Every structure is written in structure tokens, then in C-alpha cells.
Amino acid sequence: MASVSEPHILCTDLVRIFTADGVEVQALQGLNLRVDAGEIVAVVGASGSGKSTLLTILSGLDTATAGVARVAGHDLLTMGSRERVAYRRRTVGFVWQQTSRNLLPYLTAAENIALAMNVAGGRRAQARAARIDDLLGLLEVGDTRDRRPGELSGGQQQRVAIAVALANEPLVLLADEPTGELDESTSAAVLEAMRSVNLELGVTTLIVTHDPGVSGHVRRTVQIRDGRTSTEVLRSTRVDEHGEEQHIAEEFAVLDRVGRLQLPHEFVQALELRDRVRLALEPDHVGVWPGDEGRADVPDATPPVAGGADTPRRRARHAAGASGIESAAAPAAAASEAEPRPEEER
Ligand SMILES: Nc1ncnc2c1ncn2[C@@H]1O[C@H](COP(=O)(O)OP(=O)(O)OP(=O)(O)O)[C@@H](O)[C@H]1O
User: Mapped to the 3 state alphabet, what secondary structure does 304-322 carry?
Assistant: First the structure.
């Protein structure tokens, strides 16, 4: 089982390489993600960024090529088939985009939930019936108890799907594009339902989606780009000096264990950063400048001379004078790949 301090979801340097017709596709390229017990987090990314690959690994349907993936104390890279079955039945619950993957069409809402409980076993009939009613009530679809999926709206189907996913009291709820087939207002209502389930039951929740609108419904949104987590938006509420509630959203770059981070696209474009950039360490922040090799208009663009201690602070002085951004600890900065590469700094 997970120790008290261990996060419920932990991915470290997670890699997934697919090989198709002799060509390798790196769907995940060293992804890092930590979700603590009881948190609700959204992972947002464009098509092809690796979202589904991540969720398929976390749900135990696929195995990563390398790295660490742990969920509620289970090591997903080494777990055997018996542990995998138990993990999928009891530790995690899933909500997928397509109703057909979530609900059996010939069973009612209550029967779909009961089926999930039967598969996991354990509970007595009376306790099961009570839990079915509780779950449908919590998701505000008590009136759909005896109706089949085809008789429900898209939003009701996804609410029942969430109830099915929660049937066996999972520690972790995983949702892949749960609102992908819904209109905007129904999507918002379903996301709010997930948030209230998270608050009410304390189930750790990870929502994977291409829809940036999800960030309005969760405290933490992690951006995934090219198979890596790149930036995070944290939302908080504070009361200002006039007693008014202020909603604050702060964006942070994600720094991995070896110091790699990704600059947001707009930063890269704004300064036409490419190939390599200059870095400078200041007492409380790091500066990032265009490389500008060969540009006569940049004073002192020459790197420090060899010999003596070539400290980051010295490099900072050499970089001074070049126009550029200063990336403080927050808000986020970072390079398309601003990984410190000593051989380029000499
Ligand atoms: N089974 C596979 N074989 C080969 N390549 C794959 C396979 N599954 C995914 N990929 C590739 O891995 C990359 C990430 O795919 P993934 O489905 O995880 O992205 P996604 O962010 O979920 O995209 P979408 O939102 O379009 O579903 C893509 O380049 C995709 O083509």
C-alpha cells in the first residue's frame, strides 16, 4: 500500500515508445507528474501530445517502456497479471469519452453500477443497493436508476459512468476526455459533478482532456506537450483589502529532476529563440537570452574566455547587455529545451 507521504499518482521520467512499421514513435518522452492523495488535477494537451498514452498506462491497460509509474502504491511497470486485475477492479475507476466504453446499453443505470460491484465482489446485496442509490444521488441522476443508456442524455450518461467508476470505492479516478462528446454547458456541469465527487469522497482524480476550459473547474492544470509535462496553472482564491474574493491563476514551468524545462511557445516565438540560448544565474532568478551568434548588434555576445572559474554568475555578466526575457521563479519561463549543456557554455 502507499505510504502516508507517497503521492497517489507518481510518474518519473516516464517513456513510452511505440514501433510501427519499423518506425519508432516516442509518445511519452520522460514525463513527470505527481498527484497527491485527494487532489483533482487536469492534464491538458493538443492532439498527439501523449494524453491517452499516459492514461492507458495509468489505467493498467498498457505498460511504459521506461521510467517510474506508481499509483496508490502499485508499481505499474513491474506488476504481474493478478495484481493488475485487482488494481483495475478496486484501486482505480475509469471514465472514458465514449458511452459505449463506460456503460452496457442493455442494462439500466442501477444494473450497470451493480455489475461493476459484482465483478469486484465483496459487498452484501442490501449494502450494494444502498450504495447504488447513494452514488446516483451524489451524481444527481437518481431519477435515471431504471433507465438504459439510450434513454439518457449525454450528460446523464457521463454522470452514470462516473457512478459506475466509483462503484468499488477506488482510491483514484481516471477520466479520458469525459466531456469530449458533450456541449459546452453540459461539459461544465459534468466537470462540476466530478469536482463535487472529489470534494465529497476525497477520491484522487485525474482528468485528461484537450479542452483548456477544464482549468476553470480544478485547482491544478498540467499542460502536456510532446510527451512531457511543460507548464502548470495553479488556481487559488484570496480575499482582497475590500473583502472581495479574488480568483488567482498562476502559471509555472515544470522543472524535472535533471533541470530540464520547456519554454512556452509564445516566449520562444516572441524572442525568436532557437537552437541554443544564453542562460544567466542571478541571485533570485535565471535569465534566458537568444544565442545571437554572429549578431553584431549584441554587445559582448562572446562567451566567457577559458581559464579561471567560469561560474554561472560570471556568465550572467557576459550575457548582460543582450536584450531578452528574464525568467523569474514564477511565472513560468523556460526554453523549447533549455537544458543546461555545459559543452555549449564553454
Ligand atoms: N499504438 C500506437 N502505435 C504507434 N503510435 C502510437 C500508438 N498510440 C499512440 N501513438 C502515437 O503516440 C503519440 C501520442 O498519442 P496519444 O494518443 O497519446 O495522443 P493524445 O494526446 O491522446 O491525442 P488525441 O487527443 O488526438 O487522442 C502520437 O504521435 C500517436 O500517433
Answer: CCCCCCCCHHHHHHHHCCC
